[in-house]
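Changelog-adjacent note: as of this version, every example in the card shows the full chain rather than a window. The one below runs 204 residues end to end.
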Amino acid sequence: MIFVDNNKIKESDFVSLLSKTKSLCIDEIKRQRIKRMSGVEFEGLTFEMMCQASKGTKFKGDIQQTGLQSFPDIIARRFYGTEVKVTADDKWQSTGNSILESTRATGVERIYMFFGKFGGSFDVKYRLYQECLNDIGVTHSPRYKINMDLQKGESIFDKIGIDYDVLRKDANPIQKIKAYYNKLLKEGEELWWIDQSSDTVVNP
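Full-length structure tokens:
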């Protein structure tokens, strides 16, 4: 696979693409008077609108949807990614992806969250992925928590004191996260979602 030289495509170009995609999504939702969409449906709409928004740009013809269980959901020029989330609630918060990123597409270096909110008046916010992850929760494995209104400097990476790109490339990110949460424990408490001896994630 041939990867794009990021020096030839400014990040501001991709942000502009997201802005156009947002406008098109909002217009389409209003036009069809859609009240709710599943995550799969909204991802499909986002992909369709992004392809439309890419006409006349450097991204035309080079946007792809990665498919179920892949991260991120949409890739542009093999370097930029869009992770699509949706909520039926009137809030800008949700559960995100696994901290391990085991299905991350090779070559994608800059990922943005594209978040649709159907509760209240439909709206969309987009933001650099690592800037809207404020904590870690557990379902079947540790997953990031999303807050699209998170203030700068308050991400989980700011709290841990490690850059997102450094953590995601670490051979054992669980250990770094465990060390952070261990500092917050009171006497007698333990991290029940991580095996103390092997640092492997366990099913709650």
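Structural remarks: The two ends are 39 Å apart (CA to CA).
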